[in-house]
# Entry
Amino acid sequence: MTPALSRELTELTNAGSIELLWARHCSNMASYGFDRLLYGFTRFRTPNSLGDPNDFVLLTNHQPSYMDVFIGEALYHHAPMVKWALEHEGSCSWQVLADMIQGDTLTRDERRVFEFNISQGVTAGYSISFRSVSARAKGAIALTATAGTPQAEVDALWSEHGGDIVLMNNIVHLKILTLPYTPPNQALTKRQREALEWVGNGKTMQDIAQIMGLTQATIEKHLRLAREALNVETTAQAVMKATFQNQMFILEA
# Structure
């Protein structure tokens, strides 16, 4: 490992927020020629679904016009490289897409994704699928090369720097899992978070009311609003989901 890479990995691991981490990672990947990134992670995968997109951890520097279609219109359901990432671990060249086109093995839905990506200049790159420790969890990142870059040129760069690139992306993935991430419209207030934390500690409504200096009715209101914000039915589910999102037991900035 070079001193420069060692320093950069240290900076990544010391990032105090997802925003800072992601900005630094985008800059690092751009230095290798990957100017657009799309990272996704879910804890709610089933044999038939990746879960509710509102629960995904999604980080990207793609334009909204790309994300509105790829995610908003659920093209990712049929994206060949997403399917690859769900079935494999490690890195994969997008040369496999060219091979699928040449072999005429794409389905109609897959071809639609392929044609949309071409229209957006998403034609060459690599995908990295991260190792999971749970059957319900999966994370991956798509690294898109600068528009117009031939895949052969990307493959040549990867043969020289691929190991470092994979290492940096693995570190970023693991770091993301430790940082607070709040999907749109799922942020908890300080009171809601505090009430959930005490529930997680096994306290009763009476205990929590006394600890927080509020009435039991007010505590229940905070917990109800927390359930609504997190889009779950029970307080136990709210505790679990807020914990997954690192919204609980966090140090205030």
Remarks:
- The chain has a mean pLDDT of 90.
- The chain has two domains: 3-176, 190-244.
- Strands lie at 34-42, 57-60, 90-93, 125-129, 138-145.
- The domain at 190-244 is CATH 1.10.10.10 (Arc Repressor Mutant, subunit A).
